[in-house]
Amino acid sequence: MGKKILVVDDEPSIVTLLQYNLQQAGYTVVTAVDGEEGKRLAETEIPDFIILDLMLPKLDGIEVCKQLRQNRIETPILMLTAKDDEFDKVLGLELGADDYMTKPFSPREVVARVKAILRRSQGQAESQSKQEETDDIKIGDLQIFPERYEAFFDGKQLEITPKEFELLLYLGKNKGRVLTRDQLLRAVWNYDFAGDTRIVDVHISHVREKIERDTRKPAYIKTVRGLGYKLEEPKGE
Predict the structure, then answer these.
(1) Who's near 62: CB < 8 A, 6+ residues apart?
(2) Which of 58, 87, 110, 128 has the most C-beta neighbours closer than 10 Å?
(3) What percent of the chain has a predicted confidence (pLDDT) above 70?
């Protein structure tokens, strides 16, 4: 049996179109017509992939994505929307969506995106399973515990999203190295968003709010003008 895809959309014609094309590609398809049902099926059916519309009854796609990621459900998510809105795009990706498509779309392109993201996710999982246990990281008053998926600053646990943690961990593993936005996109999001690096800046800003005593004069995450960012030991600590 092929991998299971959950399609969450309140437009019957789109659900039918996606279901047919995904089944033709060898996938098993489960469908939901509102956000509450979609969230429930994501938690009970354990799909391998979720196609999630942004505008949904009962619970919108952004909130579904947010709640799934908060519950540590890391199933790849492709968001669909009738809006061509930069804010929605950045917000969706910020909350943990893996890709984003604007309606109208080609069903063949959707299937191609699903295949590509599943390949990347599987490769990443296999790579992680082969890695030796990752050492804990301490930089100044910042502590990162990869195995526990936790980070602390000044002895207090950070309230941090999965993507913020992955970004912080990657910066920590590369302490002192300048990392370009494209490098961070590939490493943390495992995808090249066609040069759209704003999502990196958004996440850097959020992480700084949690580990910098003065975000106007960051001591940990430094901006290297024209290049990218680096995480370094704060001066005097």
Answers:
(1) 54, 88, 91, 92, 95
(2) 110
(3) 86
Separation in Å, CA 40 to CA 35, 93, 177, 230: 9, 21, 42, 40
CA separation for the pair 132, 125 (Å, rounded): 13
DSSP one-letter string for 139-151: ETTEEEETTTTEE
Q: What angle do CA 57, 79, 113 make, to 5 degrees?
A: 145
Sequence-distant (6+) residues with CB within 8 A of 68 are 39, 42, 43, 50, 75, 77, 96
**127 pLDDT tier (thresholds 50, 70, 90):** very low
- Contact between 8 and 50 under an 8 Å Cβ cutoff? The reply is yes
As a whole number of angstroms, the distance between CA 137 and CA 236 comes to 19
Amino acid 149 reads: Y
* 117 shares its domain with 152: no
What local confidence, expressed as pLDDT, does residue 51 receive?
Answer: 96
H helix count then E strand count, the chain:
8, 12
Boundaries of domain holding 149: 137-231
pLDDT for the residue numbered 102 = 84
Question: Does residue 212 fall inside a structural domain?
Answer: yes
Angstrom distance (rounded) from CA 90 to CA 196: 9
**Structural domain contains residue 237:** no
